[in-house]
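Support request from a user on the community tier.

User writes: "When I paste my structure tokens into the form, the page sometimes reloads and wipes my input. The last time it worked, I copied everything first. Here is what I submitted, just in case something in the input itself triggers the reload:"
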């Protein structure tokens, strides 16, 4: 069945609102009209896209697939309009980058500095998050490329990965809090601020204790926001784990310091940490602005000072 223009926003609206009436209002059409569009889609595909319930609609597996593609198409159209509008106004364009915590401290600021020098009118949007969340956003067309960690399950979306670096982690605390090296038992008994369960850094941290048959520390505050993590550690007798570049940034201002531990603990902490890199979908479909920034990123990584 041919997917028509009016079906695309209807699918995205239903996926967002989960309700026929609210979706119709948002699109400026009647509820019978959106019901007819949905029936056309389901009849043409021969599958049920949404389960009907008294309070709304819930997408089926088929529906989730169609919604994802509809959102991607809408985002692609929005990007096309934005790019043309930027060119019309004499701007270089709009580039949307997704990035994990690690490259935020050193790599990304340098890329942004060079990009703004070369393209003063360039509009940059930067979104931070976990690698898995960012890859889902990239798949929906809301980002141009990522600087993140790659996971095998992402291959089904046709993503291309260029490894950049494997940045080690360090245990750290506010400056002057810890004066002597700590062993695993002391680390286990300490109070911590850590990324949420399921994140790459948290998995590596928990494995530090699990490998020798210990349970991970119990006195933990879970926090994902870097500002919250560093503020809690600065103002309390707590430990955390940060990537070395991030720790170096805070150490320069005397805010945080690395905690001395035995070599085997440092090695164990980083045993399974995967490299981060550039993740793209179809580079040939990127705007000229996005391709320019991507090339600047590669140039920056290749430079000895990067």
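"...and here is what came back when it finally went through:"
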């Amino acid at each position: 069945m041919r997917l028509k223009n009016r079906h695309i926003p209807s699918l995205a609206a239903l996926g967002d609102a989960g309700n026929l009436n609210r979706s119709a209002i948002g699109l400026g059409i009647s509820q019978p009209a959106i019901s007819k569009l949905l029936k056309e889609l389901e009849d043409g595909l021969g599958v049920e896209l949404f389960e009907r319930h008294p309070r709304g609609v819930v997408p089926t597996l088929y529906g989730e697939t169609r919604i994802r593609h509809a959102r991607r198409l809408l985002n692609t159209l929005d990007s096309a309009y934005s790019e043309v509008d930027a060119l019309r106004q004499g701007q270089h364009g709009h580039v949307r980058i997704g990035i994990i915590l690690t490259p935020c401290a050193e790599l990304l600021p340098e890329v942004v500095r060079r990009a703004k020098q070369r393209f003063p009118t360039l509009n940059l949007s930067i979104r931070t998050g976990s690698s898995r969340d960012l890859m889902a956003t990239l798949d929906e067309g809301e980002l141009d490329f990522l600087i993140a960690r790659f996971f095998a399950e992402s291959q089904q979306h046709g993503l291309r990965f260029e490894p950049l670096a494997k940045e080690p982690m360090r245990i750290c605390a506010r400056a002057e809090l810890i004066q002597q090296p700590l062993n695993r038992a002391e680390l286990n008994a300490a109070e911590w601020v850590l990324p949420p369960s399921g994140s790459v850094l948290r998995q590596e941290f928990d494995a530090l204790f699990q490998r020798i048959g210990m349970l991970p520390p119990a006195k933990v505050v879970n926090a994902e926001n870097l500002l919250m993590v560093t503020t809690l550690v600065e103002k309390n007798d707590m430990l955390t784990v940060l990537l070395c570049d991030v720790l170096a940034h805070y150490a320069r201002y005397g805010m945080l310091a690395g905690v001395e531990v035995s070599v085997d603990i440092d090695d164990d902490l980083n045993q399974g940490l995967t490299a981060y890199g550039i993740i793209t979908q179809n580079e040939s479909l990127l705007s000229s602005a996005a391709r320019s920034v991507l090339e600047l990123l590669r140039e920056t990584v290749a430079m000895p000072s990067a």
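Agent notes: The reload is a front-end session timeout and is unrelated to the input. The domain at 169-269 is CATH 3.40.190.290 (D-Maltodextrin-Binding Protein; domain 2). The two ends are 50 Å apart (CA to CA). Escalated to web team.
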